[in-house]
Specification:
Blueprint lengths: L1 H11 L1 H21 L2 H6 L2 H32 L5 H23 L8 H79 L1 H20 L7 E2 H19 L3 E7 L7 E2 L3 H14 L6 E9 L5 E7 L12 H14 L4 E6 L5 E7 L8
Helix pairs in contact: 1-2, 2-4, 4-5, 5-6, 6-7, 6-8, 6-10, 7-8, 8-9
């Protein structure tokens, strides 16, 4: 059993693969005997096949000697000298193989010094050609592995960058929003218990959804994104009261459409912070999600606040959203801002048609 296991390991390793390749080459070389017309004309089939078997054995000897010599060079030579060692090992193996061929495979072995050197040169050339093909293949595989590793690293880095951008958006939205909401909760807890309970429920839903948002390049359902934006606006509405009016126009058929987390929420937060809050009379926020005629999906938020000011649209929230859209969709995903009439801002996010990927 032990001998069988050792033989299996030997044939399954590098040496075994080299021997199998050498035997294949030797078999192909021996077929030269079979394609000679005079052989079939002068001898019966059984004698031709017997002669071919003797030629086959004669070819196996130098092929095997070269394979074993190269295997030793691979095993013993330092990695930096491995190629040179193989190049030098091939003629050594060929010389030993031709000598063994003469000793054990006559009369099909070379019978003169010129024939000896000719056989050594022929076997060496064949072996060098095979070795060249082997190294070219190994080089191609190494380049492919390096390319795959670089692509994997690039994707991992892009995923980490996307996660950091999403965390930056979450960090931007949460602090002032939570502080304002907690202050409102403290006031409502004393004056309006029913409103207090409603605000507490909305705050719980908002925090739950914010922390459920997938990281990196992960997407989630438009239904989740709309729920997050609605909850955010509901909390803001309780704080601002009559200064804020809300309107929603969301295509129900898009509920399962995959979108980047905070794609709408960032636009809503921007509208509240930079549009409605600075306006003495407040204003209206309209939120929509609809499919365009070309199949793209448009998410939009329009406000009637103070409008675009100098440098408007250059904040970190919108910049991060633009970068996330670019990394996810390339030129097919974009965020645009334009002036609303008679005042305010319209923000639109365009997403290409797609399927799957949402959480």
């Amino acid at each position: 059993m032990k001998t069988t296991t050792q033989a299996s390991e030997f044939l399954g390793g590098t040496t075994g693969r080299m021997l199998l390749l050498a035997w294949l080459i030797a078999t192909l070389a021996s077929t030269q005997y079979l394609v000679q017309p005079f052989v079939w004309r002068n001898w019966p089939v059984d004698e031709v096949l017997l002669g071919w078997l003797e030629v086959l054995v004669a070819r196996f000897v130098p092929a095997s000697a070269i394979a074993l010599t190269v295997a030793v060079a691979l095993a013993k030579a330092p990695e930096k000298l491995r190629t040179a060692a193989i190049v030098c090992a091939i003629p050594v193996g060929a010389s030993g193989g031709v000598a063994l061929e003469f000793a054990f495979a006559a009369p099909y072995a070379p019978q003169s010094k010129i024939a000896w050197f000719s056989d050594i040169g022929r076997w060496s050339l064949v072996a060098w050609a095979v070795a060249g093909l082997y190294f070219a293949r190994q080089r191609t595989l190494a380049v492919d592995r390096a390319r795959r590793a670089a692509l994997h690293a690039e994707r991992a880095a892009a995923g980490q960058a996307a996660a950091l951008r999403l965390q930056a958006l979450q960090a931007q939205i949460e602090p002032h929003f939570l502080f304002n909401t907690l202050a409102t909760l403290r006031r409502l807890g004393v004056t309006e218990p029913a409103q207090f309970e409603r605000l507490l429920d909305d705050l719980y839903t908002f925090v739950r959804l914010m922390h459920a948002a997938p990281q990196g390049h992960g997407l989630w359902l438009l239904a989740n994104e709309v729920a997050l934006a609605r909850t955010y606006l509901s909390v803001v509405k309780l704080r601002l009261g009559e200064r804020l009016s809300l309107s929603f126009d969301v295509d129900a058929s898009l509920s399962a459409f995959p979108v980047p987390p905070l794609a709408l929420a960032t636009l809503v937060e921007n509208a509240v912070k930079h549009g409605i809050t600075p306006a003495p009379a407040g204003g209206e926020i309209v939120l929509w999600a609809r499919r365009r005629t070309n199949g793209d999906v448009e998410l939009g938020v329009a406000d009637t606040g103070v409008g675009l000011r100098e440098g408007g649209g250059a904040g970190i929230g919108l910049a991060n959203t633009r970068e996330r859209l670019r990394s996810l969709y390339g030129a097919a995903g974009r965020l645009t801002l334009e002036a609303n009439q008679p005042r305010g801002v319209i923000a639109r996010v365009r997403l290409p048609p797609q399927a799957g990927g949402a959480q």
